[in-house]
């Protein structure tokens, strides 16, 4: 069984400080054995690191980086909520919303920035179902927003 906390150390990944909500909501809600995270954005120190739409202001490589940063923020929020990422049984669902110029067709490659990080941290046996959707705009003009649902140990 893969330890997520050990994987982070072995990969040399130090999680950022968990972002705080930007409005009137909480960062995570646990119900039963499911942890629902708020929409995760590619922010650092409560400010967007990436701004714009993929295919217009940003290219696909920047989109992948934005998705990975949003996933790192999701891990930080999950760890803050659970105390340890080793309490994650699996990533149940990953929704990736990508702001595009309208003609981008390679959304799955952008979304892989988040999926591949989760795969490295949790292992392939804990991968999620995934939904990828192109949208016109996202909060704070970020290019990516993640929806993450985790199954946790009782």
UniProtKB/TrEMBL annotation:
Domain Endoribonuclease L-PSP/chorismate mutase-like per the UniProt entry, residue ranges: 9-141
Matches recorded under SUPFAM superfamilies: YjgF-like
Pfam families cross-referenced by the UniProt entry: YjgF_endoribonc
Transmembrane segments: none
Stored CDD domains: YjgF_YER057c_UK114_like_1 (cd02199)
PANTHER family named among the record's database cross-references: ENDORIBONUCLEASE L-PSP_CHORISMATE MUTASE-LIKE DOMAIN-CONTAINING PROTEIN, ENDORIBONUCLEASE-RELATED
Protein name per Swiss-Prot or TrEMBL: RidA family protein
Organism: Bradyrhizobium rifense
